[in-house]
Amino acid sequence: MSDPFQQALHATLPMLKKIQHGIKPAPKGSTSALKKLRDAALAGCPPGQAAAPPQSTPGTGAAKRPAAQPANPPIAPAVPAGGWTMESLRKAVLACEKCPHLVRSRTQVVFGVGNPGAELLFVGEAPGADEDAQGEPFVGKAGQLLTKIIQAMGFERSDIFIANVLKCRPDMPPGESGNRKPKPAEMATCLPWLVEQIALIKPRVIVALGATAVEGLLGETSPLRDLRGRWLEFQGTPVMVTYHPAYLLRNQSLSEKRKVWEDMLLVLEKLEKKITAKQRAFFTKASG
User: Fold this and answer.
1) Residue 75 binned pLDDT confidence (cut-offs 50, 70, 90)
2) Contact between residue 257 and residue 223 where contact means Cβ atoms under 8 Å apart
3) Does domain 81-281 have CATH number 3.40.470.10?
4) What values do phi and psi take at 131, rounded to 5?
C-alpha cells in the first residue's frame, strides 16, 4: 500500500470505529428533562440565595429530589451588593427580559402583592388578561373568589402575599384569545424570581393554587386529585396544594368547594390560628 492516502485511511479506520461505537443518541425531550431544567434554575442561584433544590415530600418518608445539573441552566438573577430587598427585587423583576417572546407580548410584569412579611403565601401559575392590564395577581373573577376565601380564613389580602410562578402573561398565538398554560421552560426560567421572593418573605405556609403552580414550584406532575389536601414541602416550607379558584368557577358543586375549604382549614391549623365553629361548619351539609 504505497499511496499515502490509502495508508492514512487504513490507520484511521480502527479509530473511527471506536468513536462510532461510543456515540449514543441524544435523549428525547421528556417531562424528566423539563424537571431538570426547572431544578437547574434553582441550582444556578448564587450562594446564599436559596440555592438548594426544592423538596417534595408527599407523605411520611418520601425521598428528596437530588440536585439536577443540566448543561445550560437559566440565568439566575445577579444579587446586588448587600443582598436583595423587596423593592430592589421588584425593580429587577419589572425590568426582566429573560423571555423575549413574553417581553414582546406583555403589558407589564406582575410582581406580586401583599405583606412582604406575610406568614401565608399564595402561589398561582401566571397572570391572565386582567392581571396583565392591572399589574396585580388575581384581580379577575378567579381573584375575586380567592379574596373571599382569604377573608373567610380571617385574613385580608393585605395580610398575606400573592404571587405567580410566571411573572408575565403567556403570549397567545395570533388570532387566538384567552389564556394559555405556561410552558415548563418558561416557568423554570422565571422560578428564581419566586425563590427570591420566598426567601425574603419567609412565609410559614405556602398554598399552591392548581396543578400548574405545583408543577412550576415543586416539579410535581402527579394528578391534582392525588396531591390536594396533602402537605408537601418547598425548601423547608410546608406547601398545601389545592384547586385553583378558576376551577371552582367552572365546577360549582359544593363537594369541590368543600375540598378547598378543608384544605384551608389545614392551613389555619398549621398556622396555629383559632378556627371558629362557623368556619368549621362551612360546606358540611354538602352532599358527596
Assistant:
1) low
2) no
3) yes
4) -70, -40
